[in-house]
Amino acid sequence: MKSHIVIITSLFMLPISFSMADSKTVENLIQSYIAKGAASPSIEQGKQLWQKTFTGKGEFPERSCVSCHTDDLTALGKHVKTNKTIKPMAPSANPERLTSSRKVEKWFKRNCKWTLGRECTAQEKANILLYINNPIRF
Ligand code: HEC
After folding, report:
1. 63 vs 136: which has the higher pLDDT
2. What gap in Å lies between CA 17 and CA 21, rounded to an integer?
């Protein structure tokens, strides 16, 4: 049963995700990642990467996107270093999210470097972007 769901969702992932992307920014960014070699983005893989823990140095040996943004994308986050509140990531909870390609790219770069110790690949960005855009579907 589970494998059926995976096959069905991966078959229809692209059209569904595009029709659900209410923001042109999300659609344009995903097209640009595909142009850089990414395959059809996967919300499930985006979620896994969002929650995955990476090893860091110094004061923060365990790092993940969840460290600052929490695993509920519709909830308020908290910056691990500054303790400042971070507004929810999901556009459904915060309509300002994913409306500027420049902002998304800037923070992907900075946050992937801090969390993973390297920049995210086009595939990883496509997966995460789709997950942030549609967190409730899985
Ligand atoms: C050390 C804290 C921290 C971690 C860890 C972190 N972020 Fe962020 N992130 C921020 C802050 C601060 C902002 C900018 C403030 C804001 O927009 O509310 C931000 C903003 C973003 C944005 C901008 C979204 C938009 O349209 O406004 C994206 C995308 C993002 N982060 C993705 C990630 C991803 C992916 C990871 C994990 C690889 C991650 N973040 C890990 C602190 C963090």
Report:
1. 63
2. 6
The number of residues in the chain equals: 138
CB 46 within 8 A of CB 130: yes
Structure confidence at residue 138 as a pLDDT band (50, 70, 90): very low
User: Closest residue (by CA) to atom 43 of ligand 1?
Assistant: 68
Atom 25, ligand 1: which residue's CA is nearest?
A: 97
Q: Is 65 exposed, middle or buried (0-12, 13-18, 19+ CB in 10 A)?
A: buried
Residue 81, ligand 1, Cβ within 6 A: yes
* Spatial CA neighbour of 19 closest among 123, 135, 101, 130: 130
HSE-up of 95 (CA within 13 Å, CB side)? 1
